[in-house]
Amino acid sequence: MSTFTKAVAHMRSSKTVMISGGTLLAIAIVALIGPWISPNDYMTTDFDRLFQSPTFSSMNLFGTDDLGRDLFVRTMLGVQVTLVVAVVASVVSLVIGVLYGATAGYIGGRVDTVMMRFVDTLYATPFIFFVILLLVVFEQNFLLIFVAIGAINWLDMARIVRGQTLSLREREFVDAARLIGVSTPRIILRHIAPNLIGVVIVYVTLTIPQAILIESFLSFLGLGIQEPQTSLGNLVSGGALQIEGASWMLLIPAALLAIILLSFNFLGDGMRDVFDARQSR
Amino acid sequence: MSLLEIDGLSIGYGGVDIVSGLSFGVDASESVGLVGESGSGKTQTALAILGLLPGTAAVSGSITLGGQEIVGADDATLNALRAEHVGMVFQDPTQALNPYIPIGDQLRRILIQHGLADGSDADQRVMHMLDRVGLPDAARQFRAYAHQLSGGMRQRVMIASALIAAPDLLIADEPTTALDVTVQAQILELLERIRDDTALLLITHDLAIVAGHCERMLVLQDGKLIEEGKTRKLFSAPATEHTRALIDAAPRVDTAASPQPVSGEPLLDVDNVSVSFQERDRQRQLHAVQDIDLELREGETIAVVGESGSGKSTLARSVLGLIPMRTGRIVFCGKAIEGPVQSRAIETRRDLQLVFQDPAGSLDPQMRVERIVAEPLAVHAPDLDGEARKARVISMLERVGLSDAFLQRFPHELSGGQAQRVAIARALIVNPKVLVCDEAVAALDGSVRREILLLLRKEQQETGLAIIFISHDLAVVRSISHRVLVVYLGRLVELADGEQMFTKPRHPYTRALLDAVPVPDPLAPGGRLSVKGEMPSILEPPSGCAFHPRCSYAHARCKAELPRPRTVDGTRVACHRAEELLERF
Fold it and tell me: Of these four, A149, A247, B263, B384, which has the most CB atoms within 10 Å of its CB?
């Protein structure tokens, strides 16, 4: 696709995008391959090696935790979970948000008002209350986290897409399409949607860190991923308890979390520059 | 030695020279016109003289003003130089004035900043200056904010602020391009009258303005000075091809002949159309178009002319179904059509097409030319296969003068003229019967504009296309219109055959418009001032005849009673005094 090839060419020329994107890719690859080649696994406890500091001897690269489990494998697992949560939650928010926002914006009038007041209502609902409610009503499970995070993120996406659609709808090329006789769904699909891509892609990269933070926050509170599964949020939470005796338990997952968050943020900023530059020309 | 001396000036961005090896001078109290098409480096030169070029510009050569070097001078020197020695008037006074400071204070600060006056003395001088530029009730306007003034008044304030420190040189960069033609005449006359001994460097794309207001002119092309000399001499005997072409491309309202009226079948009948908008916050109605009648024949071009805010675009858009009508009826090919464009029959939608003012904005930035031009075919000829469709697109592009090399281009890779050709190709590929051109050539350079007009003429002659041509520019309209409709504050003022309209107008407003248009001829420059003030707000239209406050022929009856359009000597005209005035024009 045209937009895409041009955008890719621009991203190549942007240092921010290349460095942050490269970092993320490297972390993802290590997180996928690491647990597979490591001699240790994520559940086995070893009471001879409690609180082992990072060492090469038994391939406990990141040390072990209070139960003697290998932290390298657990951390990599946490990164996997974190990235999956981020991507799935963002896709959920992308699909719902774009459809909802574009519909409200293009149809406009009373439909728009009703749809957006619904969004405002959800905004006003306390999020934690909402999640606890979900966890009480349904069983606590992996899927629920995705739903919960996606359900929060799509609100922002819908607002942004709606605003963009409102201004696109007034553009002359949309009038031109209406005059030619192009049908409304086709206008949304062929003229509105492609012109939203820039904003949406940028916004998705900026919602990913938000999703990661929410997941970590939920896990930190004990509402998220459950043992023996783990996520970066869980690991940081566990490490915080051992901060005096075994600081690596906190520092390593926390550092990884920070790097991932920063990379996504820089990626979003870089993408925004890339698309802005393209639009201003 | 000249007041302003430019020697070998080059301005480049990223290794590309926008201006190269430019040398010229401006003497004290002289008026010089700097002309050229867009992208020829006119504005860059002006910014260089003011020392306002961005840091990314590579500037070489020398600019001296009264012996002081500007290229490479530090900020303190430049600041002292600006305002005290050079004044600048920009194209858009809205952006050049600070919206948060009363205009009187803005002018006052100039004097105080430069230590030219203080306290009440400064107030006096500002008041005097505002009075001189023709601001009514200057003492009260002193406290006004920019948004409370009309466009013409804002430009007067800009001129006041540029001249208040009595500079040696005044640079005016397209000072009237954003203004209506009657206001343009007032502003240019004002510039001429109050600049005293200040030299004037007038930058414009409009040769007609230079013809009437500059002693000498300079012609720029691609950043190079290709010709300079006395305005009269250059117009009568230009030395270069390019200057010749520029002069020829400038439309003339005084001599060009309008085509003979056509007697084809009536195609589109606009009957008593009114369009209103609801004011959002208040309960008021804004009557953008009121009771307009129009009949368009096959193969005919009707120009709809009026100043900005007169409702001409609104009229066209309501005919096309983009804006709902309040009352009225549209009959097309013998059948009444109504409702918004989405609910109209597909054949009707095919037969009525529109070309917009901003060619780039009317093309989807994400689509290539091929898809843009092919899109109407997808709707109206869905059974064409890919090959046949592409062949149709290529032959259509050829018709509008573009080769198949353009198929894979994106809109931002096209020049203004090319983009407008693509927009015309998209409109004509389904062979519509009526084409509405909404200021379709207003954003284009003179030579390109002429080519597009010729293209429309050719299409009309070959296919019998009827054209509604909306324009604020009477000079452009003259050579192409069979008939002309003049509108003022949403109402019909005059509807007449082209030749009739331009030689024997019936309505005082038409007369005033014609007088105000400048003519690219130093011996008969036009641009006369024959109407007072500016168009009133459409939210508060004057009583009776909407034009009466500005009309020099207004009677008591004009103020009290709305003149209905009637036929006087073969012309539809809405004026109580049309018969008596016939003799006077």
Answer: A149
